[in-house]
Description:
The chain has helices spanning 2-10, 15-21, 34-85, 96-99.
Amino acid sequence: MRFLQVFGLFTVGGWLEVAHAVKDPAYGPGDVDPNVALYFVSLVLICVWILVQVVSALLVDSFTQACRHEERRALVDDEEQRMRKRGFTKVPFPSIRLLV
């Protein structure tokens, strides 16, 4: 159960309910222990920063793979055009298209 609560904090979903559940009644109604507030604020900031880094890494990786795929496709197209200019009516290795 605690892991799910921390995961909820990590995804910035429902962290207010958890913060209200752990507030210390010794500080009075509406008051929160400064250490608990510091913990939750730092946890949320660190977790959001980690999530942003993971999402940006995934986006950069997918864009890089897409660029590589387009470069390979362009190389195969160029090679096919060169072969046809040399007089070949059929490309010697048509299965190379399947790899791109």
